[in-house]
């Protein structure tokens, strides 16, 4: 049976032109925090991230560094049966886990380093976070660049991808991402089934053709070197040169808190990872360039949408959550769907989430039957 993750108990000068130089460093009372972990259970790390966002312990910028045992992770609103070769994963004993953030399907292993940035939303910047990663790579003599909505590339090939989560009710934001150092590239071919529309749009034959391990060109790069560089760059930019590095372990004090344990149990559950598969009467699929892939499934009874499920690799999962909730109970048809999704407009004012909502609404209304 396929298992989901279950635990068992040289400097480079700083560039003055960076977009975040106007960022105000956190006040002394809210000094930056740095955490590292050698735990290999990915759901442990997802639970740590969620706990830190929910607990009120993070008052300023925080950097958390880790890496997992071999696992396929899917975005919060992705369909595991569509994104993964589950039979092959079961055969080779590779786990599956679902993130709380958005984004696409990813294979991760100890050759894939992970960075997590968490901070209050009023001092959160994905651009600044990615510039910290780029600065860390420069410290390792690697000149990479941003590409698209969430990728870093080296000589045109992807070396890093990111996903995000915002919690407006808590005023907290999270950005986590990978850096491919020496991951098993053949696993990408064995376990992942990327949407063909993505590959066609990018003009490549497979995921493997457009990604690379840094070890291919930089033999000395390793997880520990990269982590040291990330910490140095983070501390310089965020003003935390004397920051203590906290080692996070299975027996760290907060891991016995019921809030942490409850979150970990949920992340490990079959229901969270695989969800329900109700019967649907209507299905629409598309890929909107620069926005997301959408697979919308509606259960319509007597012209009313009784249930709506949206599978997507969108970077803003709260928009997808809101859309599913708004559509449930709406009158089926262009007008009913438009009215339902319009109710979400006041909740998503930032450019990224608003663009996602507008694109989903426009496409859905143009393609449903009245």
Structural description of this entry:
α1 links the parallel β1 and β2. The chain is built from twelve helices and 14 strands. The chain is 33% helix and 24% strand. It starts with 32 loop residues before the first strand and ends with a helix. It is an alpha+beta fold and 370 residues long. The strands form three sheets. An eight-stranded mixed sheet has the order 7-8-9-10-6-2-1-11, with helices on both faces. Strands 4-3-5 form a three-stranded mixed sheet.
Helix/strand layout:
Layout: E1 33-37, H1 42-55, E2 62-66, E3 71-74, H2 80-83, H3 86-91, E4 95-98, E5 106-108, E6 112-120, H4 126-139, E7 145-147, E8 151-154, E9 157-167, E10 172-180, H5 185-191, H6 196-202, H7 223-238, E11 245-248, H8 258-268, H9 270-274, E12 282-288, E13 292-301, E14 304-312, H10 317-327, H11 334-342, H12 351-367
Parallel strand pairs: 1-2, 1-11, 3-4
Antiparallel strand pairs: 2-6, 3-5, 6-10, 7-8, 8-9, 9-10, 12-13, 13-14
Helix pairs in contact: 1-8, 4-7, 10-12, 11-12
Descriptors:
single chain, alpha+beta, three-stranded mixed β-sheet, 14 strands, 33% helix, 24% strand, globular
């Amino acid at each position: 049976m396929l298992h989901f993750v279950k635990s068992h108990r040289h400097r480079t000068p700083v560039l003055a032109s960076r977009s975040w130089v106007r960022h105000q460093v956190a006040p002394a009372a809210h000094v930056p925090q740095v955490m590292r972990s050698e735990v290999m259970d990915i759901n442990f790390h997802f639970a740590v991230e969620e706990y830190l966002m929910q607990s009120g312990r993070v008052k300023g910028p925080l950097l958390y560094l880790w890496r997992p045992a071999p696992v396929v992770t899917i975005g919060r609103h992705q369909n595991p049966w569509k994104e993964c070769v589950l039979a092959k994963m079961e055969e080779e004993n590779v786990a599956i886990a679902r993130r709380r953030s958005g984004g696409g399907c990813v294979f991760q292993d100890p050759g894939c380093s992970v960075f997590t940035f968490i901070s209050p939303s009023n001092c959160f910047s994905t651009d600044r976070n990615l510039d910290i990663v780029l600065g860390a790579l420069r410290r390792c003599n690697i000149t990479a660049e941003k590409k698209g909505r969430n990728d870093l590339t080296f000589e045109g090939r992807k070396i890093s991808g990111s996903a995000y989560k915002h919690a407006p009710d808590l005023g907290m934001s999270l950005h986590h991402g990978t850096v491919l150092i020496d991951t098993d590239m053949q696993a990408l071919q064995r376990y992942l089934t990327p949407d063909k529309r993505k590959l066609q749009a990018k003009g490549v034959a497979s995921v493997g053709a457009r990604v690379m391990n840094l070890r291919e060109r930089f033999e000395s790069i390793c997880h520990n070197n990269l982590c040291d560089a990330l910490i140095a760059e983070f501390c310089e930019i965020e003003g935390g040169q004397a920051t203590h590095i906290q080692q996070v372990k299975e027996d760290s004090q907060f891991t016995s808190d019921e809030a942490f344990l409850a979150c970990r149990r949920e992340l490990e559950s079959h229901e969270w990872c695989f969800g329900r598969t109700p019967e649907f009467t209507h299905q629409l699929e598309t890929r909107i360039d620069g926005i997301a892939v959408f697979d919308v499934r509606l259960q319509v009874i007597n012209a009313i949408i009784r249930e709506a499920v949206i599978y997507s690799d969108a970077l803003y999962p709260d928009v997808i959550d809101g859309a599913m909730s708004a559509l449930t109970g709406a009158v089926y048809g262009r007008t009913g769907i438009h009215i339902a999704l319009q109710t979400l407009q006041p909740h998503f004012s930032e450019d990224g989430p608003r663009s996602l909502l507008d694109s989903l609404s426009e496409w859905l209304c143009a393609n449903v039957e009245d």
